[in-house]
Design brief:
Length: 162
């Protein structure tokens, strides 16, 4: 019985470059499009039970069969800026070893908590209710209320139900 959901993101030049076993265990595949930049196509990955043949199915209910993702560089995203700074430090270092650049040991639980808070706030900013956000970040509605601000609504928008 699964007790823990593990999410792994792997970047490859092509889906066929992934190990066959890795493709078999994948639930989804995202294909970043060359044109237009800033979009990807999602696919559901399935595998036959008897032979283990891997199949991908596109989502027909997605407009134009593509989903946009934000340009984090334009949005002053703190995580993007931190990663960019670390990457620049690594490229400028003589060691080219990320372990040499590690100044302090990060607490993985604290990093995960902060990431959940940021994800919850982004979801609230998109207009999701506290109930919907709690399902997304797998926390209680009271936790979501405590760690997120209500989204700003314009006069033409109706506030999200809580």
């Amino acid at each position: 019985m699964r007790k823990k959901r593990i999410v792994t993101i792997t970047t490859l030049p092509h889906w066929s470059d992934a190990d066959v076993r890795m493709r078999r265990f994948a639930d989804y595949r995202l294909w970043a499009l060359k044109r237009p930049i800033g979009y990807f196509r999602p696919y559901r990955v399935t595998s036959t039970f008897d032979r283990g043949d891997v199949r991908t199915e596109s989502y027909d209910d997605i407009p134009r069969n593509r989903i946009p993702f934000p340009n984090l560089d334009r949005h002053d995203d703190e995580y993007f800026e931190a990663v960019t700074e670390k990457k620049d430090d690594l490229l400028d270092s003589e060691h080219f070893d990320a372990d040499e650049l590690q100044e302090e040991e990060l607490d993985p639980e604290e990093v995960e908590r902060e990431q959940k808070k940021a994800d919850a706030q982004r979801a609230r900013d998109l207009g999701l209710s506290t109930r919907e956000v709690s399902e997304v970040v797998d926390m209680s509605q009271s936790w979501v209320s405590k760690y997120t601000d209500k989204p700003q609504t314009t006069p033409t928008e109706a506030p999200a139900d809580d």
